[in-house]
Structure formats: structure tokens, C-alpha cells
Write a structure and sequence with these properties.
Layout: E1 2-6, E2 13-18, E3 23-28, H1 38-56, E4 63-66, H2 90-99, E5 104-108, E6 111-113, H3 115-122, E7 125-129, E8 133-135, H4 149-157, H5 159-168, E9 172-173, H6 174-180, E10 185-187, H7 191-202, H8 223-238, H9 243-256, H10 259-274, H11 277-291, E11 313-317, H12 321-332, E12 336-340, H13 344-365, E13 374-377, E14 388-391, H14 397-410, E15 416-419, H15 426-430, E16 439-444, E17 453-458, H16 464-476, E18 480-485, H17 492-509, H18 513-523, H19 529-536, H20 538-547, E19 562-563, E20 566-567, H21 571-577, H22 604-616, H23 626-646, H24 653-664, H25 673-680, H26 682-695, H27 706-713, H28 722-725
Parallel strand pairs: 4-5, 5-7, 6-8, 7-10, 11-12, 11-14, 12-13, 14-15, 15-16, 17-18
Antiparallel strand pairs: 1-2, 2-3, 8-9, 16-17, 19-20
The chain binds ligand LNIPZVSO and nicotinamide-adenine-dinucleotide.
Length: 733
């Protein structure tokens, strides 16, 4: 065997391994490396050169393409998008592989994603390792598969299956890929060896039936109806994202046009998406979600210098809505869990609920049950030997403090004590313990076993080790963990306050819940603010406002609309006083067919109530347009985001954006609130906030934050430069 090493870049090398029977053309690189970077241009050049050579040399009978370090290819390097393209273009290269007169076999290990799978589809055969994952995830980056994926996949596996994979970007396992017909063989052994063997077995055989581009595209008999249905469904679930809809158009071209024309159409549609703001937003978000794991705190604690401590056993205290979901998440990730409630009755109910959740989930995933991992108890003492505790009792500071005091006495030294509080002061909880450095917030989102977000809240005394441990714990249970500072509501709920406040004020001024919700849903939120409030329960906010002393009737018996010189809307409180807590009572901002009902219907009572309220307070309803609804709600929220950055509560805009996309339904194709502000233009956001603040001087949430002013005055630098401008306050840790 001879091995010829080609002098390309350090990252990407090409080898020709030759033996008497089969030449292995080996493409070596890291997943996600680009087709367009200098390295990738070199890779493409190498592939083209080596293919030419392999086809020319008579002793070469077949070719195997594989990746380096057990990864076939993760597709294009999106960091390089927009860079000047050099080297041989990808699409002709792929055509050349498909047209080759000698069999070309893809040996798929690790991943074949995006352009990586498109490369594999241009090969005549595909052999996958059983642990490999395959997919065309371009749609999640605001793109479509632009190297023939939309034309080849439906030809290979049929239109419905291809549409599903391309419009969702879903990855499939090797087993599913085999079932769908994407790969020809799956092996548990070394996939490259298997591919070499396979290549040898097909040498000399006709390749006519192996070139997917030459296949006729299967045409469903009811083509128009199929596409109409798919388009309707995709539009509904896309919530304004254009890539899924464009993917359907590209697959439609595969069915209705000859292959070459279909490829032209694919390129045309790709170009439209490529230059769209949504592609920018989704690609920004892709990196933001990875950036948040490189956390830092104002005191200088960092992800790369802070070592997490191993956690094997954890306790969850309080098994209500949140505690149950948290226990499920921990058990599924293989932690031993001690689950604690106050009394036997609650404990039994919780046990049944948790078991049901685990069973349903195991069934859905075809995974083994995680029951054995949970022990139930009515005594905090059961937490004596755990490594970490997550407290999830009622949102009541006195109760939580008492529990932290007890835990501090009961748990073995070194146990991390975490709270799932939504907004309370982590430092106050820490002050109840003997080791405040072991206390952090672990703020889950409901339903806790489903939602991907975890805010890890570091208090002024939390140790870097405690932050690192909670961050790693989040990762282990499949969450995206974001480290945030300690303040009322942390990041997510703090920003929610001015947003909700504006929504209430808009009702006072003449809008309806339906109108506000419609504008927000058209923007891309799955539910408008009033529908979400009905779902979460209006009593939750009411309790908080009462605790804050905000729910005070004025001397005339009317609810006070000015408190401490600030405008306040008591609308939510008045609804609660009527027993309207939202879905749970069948009435809230909307009406439901029964308590617990899910379908929101407009409620004439609510409209009359708003009219009477305005009349009582001398408010004249005015017509409020969509732009004002959107700007006042979103810019107030964004303004708070700038304040959070200025206060050093979030390390960067990416942290806020990930929290909003994963925790609050902010449409991913809009990148997150801070990215949205960047897209709109910081000077424009500032200008509109100034205008609204002039009109509503008693609403501090509309007063532009000084960081926003500073960024705008500095020429509105792009979002990736904001960190340079943010002056972090002195150490809090
Ligand atoms: C103006 C008109 C122009 C018209 C031009 C027409 C030209 C036509 C030619 C078009 C060709 C199109 C080709 C193709 O269709 C397009 C694509 O391929 S898009 C990319 C598709 N691929 C993906 O979406 C894969 C995304 N990545 C992943 O799923 C995972 O990262 C992974 C590959 C499975 C690896 O997962 P992990 O091991 O968990 O590692 P991480 O996720 O943490 O990633 C590690 C590291 O790599 C970075 N990274 C990963 N993928 C990419 C990528 N695709 N591009 C750039 N960088 C990537 C990731 O960010 C991590 O780095 P860090 O952020 O931590 O620094
Ligand atoms: N519900 C949400 O959407 C949500 C989201 C994020 C965070 N949170 C926070 O999570 C915490 C719990 O909220 P929830 O919605 O699950 O409340 P919940 O009312 O559904 O459950 C609280 C549970 O704690 C139990 N409990 C009370 N005192 C206890 C004690 N001394 N020992 C053991 N158990 C005790 C109660 O019996 C109850 O089952 C709160 O701090 C809340 O702010 C809630």
C-alpha cells in the first residue's frame, strides 16, 4: 500500500491510500469545516484533483470518501458564509462525483449533515456506522440544502419523507436512514473498512441505477393537494420563518421540473434565503447558543478556569409543578434523586405524577424507564447525603429561608444548595446557610422536563465552583444553561415586567387583548402576552404585586393608577379580584369552555369591563396601530435588556437572546430581542423609545437606558462588538 499525502492546509489533508485492489480516497477534516474557506477550497480542489486522478489511473477501481476522527462532514462552515468564494464550486464537484465511471462510496461515521449529506448523496453508495446521524439542517440556519439536497433526497426517499426532513432539519439515526433508503448498509464495525469492502464488491458493476440525479422524482398522484397541505402546515408551524416555506418550493421544483432545471431553481431559492435577515438571525443564534457555555461573571470567574464538582445524587425539595419536572429531568439523565414533599398525600400524588411522566417519556423515546433512580421522602433529612439540592417550594421567601437554614444543617459539608426561585434574592437565601459560597439559583422553566433553558443565578457570594457545577449539571440534563447575575427576576423575568406593563397600558389606552396578542403572534411568538398570562395563571403575578405592596386601592376606592410617581395599571389585579385567574378558572383575559379549558375565546364581559374601567378613570380609548403595539411592548423589553447588560447581570447580548428564544418563545428567526434591536437599528430603537417616553413620562421603562444611548452615539456598532462598549460594574462576586 502506498500513501500519498497532499500538501494542503494543516486542518484538511488528503490521502490516497492505495493497494492492489482498491484505492481509498480519504477526505480528512473536522465537522463543520467549510466548503468556502481557504481550507475548504483546498479540500474541494483536492477532491476534484483526486477524483480526476482516480478516474484516470486504470489500477484504481473504486473510491471511498470518509472523514477524519470518526466524523464524515457537518456541512458548510457558516462562519465563512459571505467570505469570497474560491476554489472549485461545490455543485459541479458533486455532479462530477455522481457522474464518475467508477463506484464512489461514502463511509459515514459521526455526522453527515447539510453539505456533508449532499456530498454523500452524490456518491453511488452510502455505508453508515450505526452511531452516525444524518440530516439536512440548513432550514434551522435560515437556508435550504443548496448542493442538490432538495433535488436528490425526494428522488431517493420520496416526496413526503424528504419534505419532512428538509423542512424540519431533523437528524435521523443510521437505522432510520437505512429504513428510509438514505443509506445502503449500516455497520457496527469500522465504517471505512466496511465501505472499502463494499466498494470492492461493486467494482465493475453498472452504476446506471446508482446516480440519484438521474432518477425520476416520484410524483404523488394528488401532487397539488399534497403540496397545498404541506405548505399550509409548514406556514402554520413556521410562524413567519421563510426558510421552511422556501424548502417546500424547492422540493416542488424537484417533482415538477427536470433535474437540471430543478437545480437551477434550488440555487435561485438558496440565493434568496442566503441574503435574508432571517438567515443572519438564525446563524447568529446558532453561535449564541454555543457562546453561552463560555460563561463569565463580573468578578472574573470563567468557564475555562472554574472546575465543576461531580454530582451523583441530588435532592429536589417540593414536588409541585416544577419539582416534578426537575425530578424527571434528573432521573432521565441518570442522577440518583431524593424527592421530598411535606406530607404523605402530596408525596403520593407527586410520585404518581412523576412515574406517569417518566413512563410516557420512555414510551415516546423508546428508552428504558428511569424509575429506580428516584427515592421519595417526607423528610428533609433524606437529603443528608446528596451532592446538590434543588429547592422548588412555593415562591415564599420566609419558607425558602427556613428550608435553606435546615438544609444547611442537614446536608453533608460541601453540598450545593440551589433554588428554583423565579425572582427572589439568591443572596438572602445564601445568608441563611453556613456556606453561602455553595448557593446558586437554578431557574428552570415550565414544563421543567421539556423546556431547554436553565438560568444559573450566581449571587455575590456564589463560588466559581458552584456556578460551574450548576452549569455542568444543566448540560448533563440536556438544558442550555445561561449564567446570570442576581437581581429581581434575573434576566428573563426582569425583562418581562416592562413588556407586560406596556401590554396593560395599551389596554387602558384603547387596545384589546385580542389586538395585542395578534400583533405579537404575527411577529412570531407562539402566543400573545395575554394568552400566555391566562395559561400561567393571573394569580401568580397578583401574588407578587401584592407582596410588593402594589395592590393598594386609592382613597376614592378606585385602584391606584399612579404609585410612587410611576404609572401603574391595576387591570390584572381587578381581574383576579373577580376570580378570573385564566385557564384554570375558565376566565381571564379570554374565556374558556370550562376551567382548565385550552381554547381562548374573545369575552364580551372583558370588553365591557375595559370600557367601564376607562370611563371610571376618564381615559378616552384611541385607535392604536400595530406598529405602536409592537414597538411599545418589544422596545420596553429590549430597553430593560440594555439595562441588564449595563448592570452586568448578563455577560453579553447572546445570553439574553438565548434566554428569550428558549424560555419565552421569542421567534428564533428573529435572533432574540438584542439581535432584533441590532437589526432594526439602535438609533431607531432609541428614537422611538425617546418619543414614547416623552408621551409617557411617568413610565420609567420607556426611558432609554444609557448603554443604548452610548451604543447609538458610538455609531451603532454591530452586536458582536457590544461587549467592547459595555462597561461592567465592579466585582459582584
Ligand atoms: C448571494 C448568493 C449566493 C449564492 C451561492 C450559491 C452557492 C450554492 C452552494 C451552496 C452550498 C450549500 C451547502 C449546504 O447545503 C449548506 C450547509 O451545509 S449549511 C451547514 C449545515 N450543517 C449544520 O447545520 C451543522 C451544524 N452543526 C452541528 O449540528 C454540530 O455542531 C455538529 C456538527 C453535529 C457537531 O456537534 P458537537 O460535536 O456537539 O459540537 P458543537 O456543536 O459544539 O460544535 C463545535 C464547534 O464547531 C462549530 N460549528 C459546528 N457546526 C458548524 C458550522 N456548520 N459552521 C461553522 N461552525 C460550526 C460550533 O460553533 C462549535 O464552535 P464554537 O461555537 O464552540 O466555537
Ligand atoms: N410554575 C412555574 O411556571 C415556575 C417556573 C419557574 C420557577 N418557578 C418557581 O418554582 C418554585 C415552585 O413553583 P411551583 O409552580 O412548582 O409551585 P407549586 O405550588 O406547584 O409546588 C410547590 C410544592 O412545594 C411543596 N412544599 C411546600 N413547602 C414544602 C416544604 N417545606 N417541603 C417540601 N415541599 C414543600 C408544596 O406541597 C408544593 O407541592 C417557586 O419558587 C416558583 O417561583 C415556577
Amino acid at each position: 500500500m502506498c500513501r500519498a499525502s497532499l500538501p494542503f492546509s494543516a486542518t484538511w489533508k488528503l490521502y490516497l491510500e492505495r493497494n492492489s485492489r482498491c484505492n481509498v480516497f480519504r477526505r480528512i477534516g473536522t465537522a463543520g469545516s467549510t466548503w468556502w474557506s481557504p481550507q475548504c477550497a483546498a479540500v474541494r480542489q483536492g477532491i476534484v484533483d483526486m477524483m480526476h486522478r482516480a478516474l484516470r489511473e486504470p489500477e484504481v477501481k473504486s473510491v471511498v470518501i470518509c472523514g477524519q476522527d470518526g466524523k464524515f462532514c457537518g456541512g458548510a462552515d457558516i462562519r465563512e458564509f459571505g467570505a469570497k468564494m474560491s476554489g472549485p464550486p461545490l455543485v459541479p464537484m458533486i455532479h462530477m462525483i455522481e457522474a464518475a465511471a467508477k463506484p464512489v462510496v461514502a463511509a459515514i461515521e459521526g455526522v453527515a449533515l447539510g453539505g456533508g449529506l449532499e456530498l454523500a448523496l452524490s456518491c453511488h453508495y452510502r455505508i453508515a456506522h450505526s452511531k452516525a446521524r444524518l440530516g439536512l439542517p440548513e432550514v434551522t440556519l435560515g437556508l435550504l440544502p443548496g448542493a442538490g439536497g432538495t433535488q436528490r433526497l425526494p428522488r431517493l426517499i420520496g416526496v413526503p419523507a424528504a419534505l419532512e426532513l428538509i423542512t424540519t432539519g431533523r437528524h435521523v439515526t443510521a437505522a432510520e436512514a437505512l429504513q428510509l433508503g438514505i443509506v445502503d448498509e449500516v455497520t457496527d464495525q469500522n465504517a471505512v473498512d466496511a465501505a472499502v469492502k463494499f466498494a470492492q464488491s461493486v467494482e465493475g458493476k453498472s452504476l446506471d441505477a446508482r446516480r440519484i440525479g438521474t432518477f425520476p422524482c416520484p410524483r404523488p398522484p394528488d401532487l397539488d393537494a399534497v403540496f397545498e397541505k404541506v405548505m399550509k402546515e409548514v406556514r402554520r408551524s413556521a410562524r413567519g420563518a421563510i426558510a421552511p416555506v422556501t424548502c417546500v418550493q424547492a422540493v416542488h421544483a424537484a417533482v415538477t421540473l427536470p433535474y437540471a432545471k430543478g437545480m437551477e431553481r434550488e440555487r435561485e431559492l438558496f440565493s434568496t434565503l442566503f441574503t435574508s435577515g432571517q438567515a443572519r438571525a438564525l446563524q447568529y443564534y446558532f453561535f449564541a447558543q454555543r457562546a453561552v457555555s463560555r460563561w463569565s461573571t463580573p468578578s472574573g470567574a470563567r468557564w475555562d478556569t472554574s472546575k465543576p464538582r461531580p454530582v451523583r445524587k441530588a435532592a429536589v425539595i417540593g414536588l409541585g409543578t416544577m419539582g416534578r419536572g426537575i425530578s424527571v429531568s434528573l432521573a432521565q439523565a441518570g442522577f440518583s434523586v431524593v424527592a421530598v414533599e411535606t406530607q404523605e398525600k402530596q408525596l403520593l400524588e407527586a410520585k404518581q405524577a412523576v412515574s406517569g411522566m417518566l413512563e410516557r417519556d420512555a414510551k415516546r423515546r423508546g428508552a428504558p424507564l428511569a424509575h429506580g433512580n428516584i427515592k421519595y421522602s417526607c423528610s428533609l433529612k433524606a437529603a443528608a447525603d446528596v451532592d446538590l439540592v434543588i429547592e422548588a417550594v412555593f415562591e415564599d421567601m420566609a419558607l425558602k429561608k427556613a428550608i435553606f437554614r435546615q438544609l444547611s444543617a442537614i446536608c453533608k459539608p460541601g453540598t450545593f444548595l440551589c433554588s428554583n426561585t423565579s425572582a427572589l434574592d439568591i443572596d438572602e437565601l445564601a445568608s441563611q446557610t453556613q456556606s453561602p459560597e455553595l448557593v446558586v439559583g437554578m431557574h428552570f422553566f415550565a414544563p421543567a422536563h421539556v423546556m431547554k433553558l436553565l438560568e444559573v443565578v450566581y449571587g455575590p457570594r456564589s463560588s466559581p465552583e458552584a456556578v460551574a457545577t450548576a452549569m455542568q449539571m444543566g448540560k448533563k440534563i440536556g438544558k442550555v444553561s445561561v449564567a446570570v447575575g442576581n437581581c429581581r427576576g434575573f434576566v428573563g423575568n426582569r425583562m418581562l415586567k416592562p413588556y407586560l406593563e406596556q401590554a396593560f397600558f395599551l389596554l387602558e389606552e384603547g387596545a384589546t387583548p385580542e389586538q395585542v396578542d395578534q400583533v405579537l403572534e404575527e411577529f412570531g411568538f407562539p402566543m400573545g402576552v395575554f394568552k400566555v398570562s391566562d395559561l400561567s395563571g393571573l394569580d401568580v403575578g397578583w401574588k407578587v404585586r401584592k407582596a410588593d405592596g402594589l395592590v393598594v386601592p386609592d382613597s376614592t376606592g378606585k385602584s391606584a393608577r399612579i404609585q410612587g410617581g410611576r404609572r401603574y395599571s391595576p387591570l390584572g389585579d381587578l381581574l383576579c379580584e373577580q376570580g378570573r385567574f385564566g385557564q384554570k378558572t375558565g376566565r381571564g383575559w379570554y374565556q374558556y369552555d370550562k376551567p382548565g379549558g385550552r381554547v381562548a375565546k374573545s369575552d364580551p364581559w372583558l370588553h365591557r369591563f375595559l370600557e367601564e374601567y376607562r370611563a371610571r378613570h376618564g381615559l378616552v380609548a384611541r385607535r392604536i396601530d400595530q406598529q405602536e403595539v409592537l414597538e411599545r411592548c418589544l422596545y420596553a423589553l429590549i430597553n430593560e435588556g440594555f439595562q441588564i447588560l449595563q448592570d452586568g447581570i448578563a455577560a453579553g447580548p447572546e445570553d439574553i437572546d438565548v434566554i428569550y428564544v428558549l424560555g419565552y418563545g421569542w421567534p428564533r428567526h428573529r435572533g432574540g430581542p438584542m439581535f432584533f434591536a441590532d437589526m432594526v437599528g439602535l438609533d431607531k430603537v432609541l428614537d422611538r423609545l425617546e418619543r414614547y417616553h416623552q408621551l409617557h413620562p411617568d413610565v420609567p421603562g420607556l426611558k432609554p437606558c444609557s448603554l443604548l444611548r452610548k451604543l447609538a452615539a458610538g455609531g451603532c456598532p454591530p452586536i458582536h462588538r457590544w461587549r467592547e462598549v459595555i462597561q461592567k460594574p465592579h466585582s459582584q462576586l
